[in-house]
Write a structure and sequence with these properties.
Layout (H helix, E strand, L loop, with lengths): L1 E3 L6 H5 L2 H13 L13 H4 L2 H17 L2 E5 L6 H11 L8 E5 L5 H11 L4 E7 L5 H18 L1 H4 L3 E5 L5 H9 L2 E4 L13 H9 L4 H15 L8 H14 L4 E6 L5 H15 L7 E6 L8 H6 L4 E8 L26 H19 L4 E6 L4 H21 L10 H12 L5
Parallel strand pairs: 2-3, 2-4, 4-5, 5-6, 7-8, 7-9, 9-10
Antiparallel strand pairs: 1-10
Helix pairs in contact: 2-16, 4-10, 5-10, 5-13, 11-16, 12-16, 13-16
The structure holds 5-phosphoarabinonic acid.
The site of 5-phosphoarabinonic acid has 14 residues, from loops.
Length: 425
């Protein structure tokens, strides 16, 4: 992975953060900053529960051998990471013996009814994920899924088709798991939802998808090794974090995540949650937004080039796509494309990126930072997840906010519960 900040910030401006970075890096390592009881993710890539990982891999194989569909039921941090990794690694149109469907992330009657209809008569298992065990979107979907499952295979067999990831001791879901005897995995006390993709929250569904979750942890462990230091000169994770802070303080309140891979779009959704929920508080924080180019060059591209100068770009570019296609020859050349004959789409995509970068930086005056990934695989993705989580902690502490709470989210829930007539609201 490489970071190029040359079109975003001067080196001297990065260097001006040296002392702050030293102090905050120590705060992260000593666990002495705001929200310090939620820093379990920092050492997780080496401290993860090895026994549980073995169980996850074994159970995942069972799911692959015995079911046609896995429904992953969760929301927010209990949903976005697994979906992002699944799409990034397997693509948007893949064939596998196990289909994965996400549910529990919406109250939409259309979506919920459509999924239930689709599952009717099919051989499916459920992975319900909720740290609190009480999130309403997830709970309603889980209740409906269970009802369908039990009506199809009976209560006894359904116990072998339900896998839960939740707190080790607390919450309604944990109580139900104890009573019903579902297989459970733990979301540790000191890891919050949006920092949990490398725990069972992400690893169980990804292992079920046949992905190498050990390689993902190995990638994250390497990132921890590379970024757990105050050496701003060489630490690209912290260089990225301070450049975000610099942009925020110099008239660029919006960070636009850019990808040229449609199968990376969900990664940008994960990023929006990671940064938005961690930093957007006390009337502070960058607004994270995202686009998928070149698709969105025919949509938001106009705004990025010529609109209000609010934003800077963080571009995630994959250098070596796993698959490629050559533009064929056509004798008639009616579409005028023979000048591209024999060229592959990776080349065309790269030229679109280079042309856009030049347009946005030179003509549009939009600062752009570039993160290059060699290729999409489990190891590199684990590395990338850790890079962003650590950068997020650094840049939230630079803003002097607690990265690990989300007090604002509670307000909608209170109002909704009151309107729904929940007892005590
Ligand atoms: O990042 C977070 O903590 C949140 O997005 C949670 O993951 C989300 O609200 C779901 O919560 P739970 O896992 O308790 O159902």
């Amino acid at each position: 992975m490489q970071l190029d900040l040359s079109k975003l910030i001067k080196k001297s401006d990065v260097d001006s953060y040296k002392e702050q970075v030293k102090v905050i890096n120590k705060m992260i390592d000593d666990k002495s900053g705001k929200g310090n009881d939620f820093l379990g993710w920092v050492d997780w890539p080496v401290n993860y529960d090895k026994e549980e990982l073995g169980r996850i891999q074994k159970d995942a194989q069972y799911v692959r051998d015995h079911f046609d569909i896995l429904v992953v039921c969760g929301i927010g941090g209990s949903y976005l990471g697994a979906r992002a990794a699944l799409e990034a690694l397997k693509g948007l149109k893949y064939q596998d013996s196990l289909e994965i469907i996400f549910m529990g992330q919406t109250f939409s009657p259309n979506y919920v009814a459509q999924v239930l209809k689709y599952l009717k008569g099919k051989n499916f298992a459920i992975n319900v994920i909720s740290k609190s065990g009480t999130t309403t979107e997830t709970s309603i979907s889980f209740r409906l899924l269970k009802e369908l499952l039990i009506s199809q295979i009976g209560k006894e067999a359904s116990r072998k088709a339900i896998y839960a990831t939740t707190d080790k001791a607390r919450g309604a879901l944990k109580t139900e798991c104890n009573k019903e005897g579902y297989a459970t995995y733990v979301l540790p006390d000191d890891i919050g939802g949006r920092f949990s993709v490398l725990t069972a929250v992400g690893l169980f569904p990804l292992a079920c998808a046949g992905l190498d979750v050990q390689a993902m942890l190995n990638g994250a462990a390497q990132a921890r090794k590379d970024f757990d230091n105050e050496d701003l000169e060489n630490n690209i994770c912290y260089q990225y974090a301070v450049s975000r802070d610099y942009m925020y303080r110099h008239g660029k309140p919006v960070e636009l995540f850019v990808t040229y891979e449609p199968q990376f779009t969900q990664i940008t959704e994960w990023l929006k949650q990671l940064f938005g929920e961690s930093e957007g508080k006390e009337k502070k924080g960058l607004l994270p937004d995202s686009v998928t180019f070149s698709t969105d060059l025919h949509s938001l591209g106009q705004f990025v080039q010529d609109g209000s100068p609010l934003l800077f770009e963080t571009i995630l570019f994959v250098d070596n796509p796993n698959e490629d296609i050559v533009v064929p020859h056509d004798d008639e050349d009616l579409d005028g494309l023979n000048y591209l004959e024999g060229k592959n789409l990776a080349f065309v995509n790269k030229k679109a990126f280079e042309g856009t970068l030049k347009a946005h930086t030179e003509d549009g005056g939009v600062p752009c930072g570039i993160i290059n990934l060699d290729k999409l695989n489990e190891y590199n993705l684990g590395y990338l997840f850790y890079f962003f989580m650590r950068a997020c902690a650094m840049s939230a502490y630079l803003l002097d906010v607690n990265p690990f709470n989300q007090p604002g989210v509670e307000i909608y829930k209170k109002n909704m519960f009151h309107l729904l007539g929940k007892k005590g609201y």
